[in-house]
């Protein structure tokens, strides 16, 4: 919630559009409600799924913020940068800024921001995976591979982590390693459509190369 409060305060200082200020205040109210619920006895706490859903809604909220203030893109960036300056050790501040940069089409800059977030929270699987995706989108495949490996190691029984690692191997022409990852992903999640499709493409590619 601290990041949201900082953004709201900074936005007031910079006289952002009224819709943006209203949105931020609503997000803070929602976050406070969530925190209060977590503080009650175990019988009244939100379920894990509810908390996850709230986190997802909050991430979507930052995108709505950027959309509301899209006519002042530079101002939006400045707000997020100020939030990072005020909370330099908060990975969420970097993730939120990275999301804004992606929406603005600045994938190269976003990759660096996501990478910083992953360095601050190297045990958070979802964050590490997001950073790997950002690096892949920026064309930094070797670095993306490192983080996809890290994500796989964090959740060795997660089929998607193996499939993602296989895909980055595939993109780099490391076909034997890609095939191994795809097979492991299918062992964990038989019939997964994306993995089956990627493995089929890989086998066709290898068959053509043998001709």
From TrEMBL:
Alphabetical list of SMART domains matching this protein: TPR
InterPro entries per record: TMTC_O-mannosyltransferase, TPR-4, TPR-like_helical_dom_sf, TPR_rpt
Recorded superkingdom: Eukaryota
Pfam families assigned: TPR_1 (PF00515), TPR_16 (PF13432), TPR_4 (PF07721)
Biological process according to GO: protein O-linked glycosylation via mannose
PROSITE patterns noted in UniProt: TPR, TPR_REGION
A GO cellular-component term linked to this record: endoplasmic reticulum membrane
GO molecular function terms listed in the Swiss-Prot or TrEMBL record: identical protein binding; mannosyltransferase activity
TPR repeats mapped onto the chain: 91-124, 159-192
SUPFAM superfamilies: TPR-like
Alphabetically ordered keywords of this record: TPR repeat
The name this protein goes by in its record: Uncharacterized protein
Protein species of origin: Homalodisca liturata
Species classification: Eukaryota, Metazoa, Ecdysozoa, Arthropoda, Hexapoda
